[in-house]
TrEMBL record:
PPIase FKBP-type domain mapped to chain residues: 78-181
Source lineage: Bacteria, Pseudomonadati, Bacteroidota, Cytophagia, Cytophagales
Gene Ontology molecular function: peptidyl-prolyl cis-trans isomerase activity
Protein name as annotated: Peptidyl-prolyl cis-trans isomerase
Source superkingdom: Bacteria
Organism: Algoriphagus antarcticus
Gene Ontology cellular component list: cytoplasm
Chief subcellular location: cytoplasm
Keywords: Chaperone, Cytoplasm, Isomerase, Rotamase, Signal
Leader sequence segment: 1-19
């Protein structure tokens, strides 16, 4: 009798797991499409300098350049980048920055933090995927705004920083690629 009850409970649990996976996938698609609509709504109602625009249909990431350097110094996987950034919610509330003056003016300054450009190796998963996708499309010296659906940002978990990022929130990063040191090529 115990075996039969266990088998039935296991079957029921397995059914819920299967249904849960389908719902999660459907929910992810709904959230992704809502994010794209929210980003488009932001772009439709906000004036942003636009000298070049690229939309990555694989990830839903939009990159809009405010300045093109013309340096021809492209960014490749494995490069070490030095980047100034300002991260914002789509209501323009700054949640993080590498620039001290911006942190102070936005009320998120932390005296124990060393404000300086972010240095990271691109393609090693050190940052959220959308940040890296956007940076890979830029050249050294470019300034651009990268719009990122939540799936490629902070996802369902969001963050609990000074300015929390809500669950499933699309975000944007204003990026300036200061330098790219070539790394090993894959």
């Amino acid at each position: 009798m115990k075996f039969r009850i266990f088998a039935i409970l296991s079957l029921i649990a397995g059914s819920f797991a299967f249904v849960s996976c389908i719902d999660d996938e459907a929910t992810d698609d709904v959230i992704y499409n809502q994010d794209l609509a929210e980003i488009q709504g932001y772009l439709d109602t906000t004036s942003i300098v636009n000298v070049k625009k690229v939309y990555d249909s694989n990830y839903g990431v939009t990159v809009i350049w405010q300045e093109l350097s013309g340096s021809k110094d492209t960014v490749s996987l494995g490069d070490t980048l030095k980047v100034n950034y300002v991260g914002k919610l789509l209501n323009n509330k700054v949640f993080d920055t590498s620039i001290e003056d911006v942190a102070k003016s936005e009320g998120i300054y932390a005296s124990n933090r060393n404000y300086q450009p972010l240095v990271f190796i691109i393609g090693y998963g050190q940052l959220i995927p959308g940040f890296e996708i956007g940076a890979l499309k830029m050249e050294v010296g470019d300034k651009a705004t990268v719009f990122i659906p939540s799936l490629y940002a902070y996802g369902k978990q969001g963050t609990n920083g000074i300015v929390p990022i809500p669950s499933n929130a699309p975000i944007l990063f204003e990026l300036e690629i200061i330098s790219a040191t070539p790394g090993p090529r894959r």
